């Protein structure tokens, strides 16, 4: 029986006052216009009223889906609420104008069985919205993918994970479910929620327009591969702000598979990862344009700001500003070699063309790192018009992992022996370095080669203004 609470509506009446204080040519008198906005009803359904137990043992899938499906048709907003408890579920599907509201003491638990997910592996999510408008998740609670139930062997370097490829549903060793997916949606809002322990990618935004992700956190086991934080794929007009991401694999990862990606802004966030904190690619069949990353702190990550352009798409007009970076070595089975900044384009294989990367601005960057900056274009995929302005970089080794390697993965040349340098450059047309200070920790300076390492015939049009390179003999903890 559905109680009064499940049918409860909130009524919001808005009053808009527009005061016209300057006389217009058409009306000599000042006027005041009062516009009464239409009344908005928010329908509220509690999953408890539809039979959910919330004990974390019995599956509540049917009850949750019934609460969603009971939301009225049309453009009427609806909240599906989860009171305190643990709700075990197979895939649940959102529809337009529905927001999941998970109480701060409630957890939505993803099922660990293959039968908990749809037949098509492309729809393996705990929470899935397809072709929906005005959808979201909030409430302060948790969505948990129970990643530890997918671990075959725990390993401090990298866990060995379950793969459901034996079923034929998908191939490779990344055959397990994602946590939350919005596919082909408009007006997506994810805020005030904790996404935890994904077995694979965590928050997946695919072919969406107008997405707002804010005031939320993502936690993935640090030793679990492929548990990306936020993957933005073929989507436009995306804003990410005030998020905290602590995970094993890439944290914020724009990709292009079937179309271009435009207008992505990420600000005021904190990241730690065993892979790249911010990475464009490696899926890059279409263009990336107009991306801004500002006021972001990156700590103890394997790579800071990364570009892996491998499939012929082009990148242009990207700004990184006010970024604080700390990068260190982890085991080389993870992509990355402690580069604070890594910009590369090369073909994934012999069948792939080369894309270009142009008009990049790095401004107000502070980095403490075990390795240098790596800027590598390719013969037919140049890096063009790169600017580094107001940048302070301190180089110091503090782990025992082997250095002296350049990482071109995936594809390209793989791992290549190369002495460490402040900035390694190849296949660049247009590079501005202005107000850049490079410091080398004195007791290990012999392990580094040159501040700037490049072959003149592959790098053209360089401008150096107020560039300094010196030893740092302080005893401070550079890794902090």
From TrEMBL:
Q: Which molecular function GO terms apply here? A: polygalacturonase activity
Q: Which residues form a coiled coil?
A: none
Q: Does the keyword Nucleus apply?
A: no
Signal peptide range in chain numbering: 1-24
Going by the UniProt record, its keywords in alphabetical order are: Glycosidase, Hydrolase, Signal
Which Pfam families does the entry mention?
Glyco_hydro_28 (PF00295)
Alphabetically, which GO biological process terms does the record hold? carbohydrate metabolic process
Q: Where are the transmembrane segments?
A: none
Query: Could you name the domain of life of the organism this protein comes from?
Result: Eukaryota
The family classification in the record reads: Belongs to the glycosyl hydrolase 28 family.
Q: What name does the UniProt record give this protein?
A: Pectate lyase superfamily protein domain-containing protein
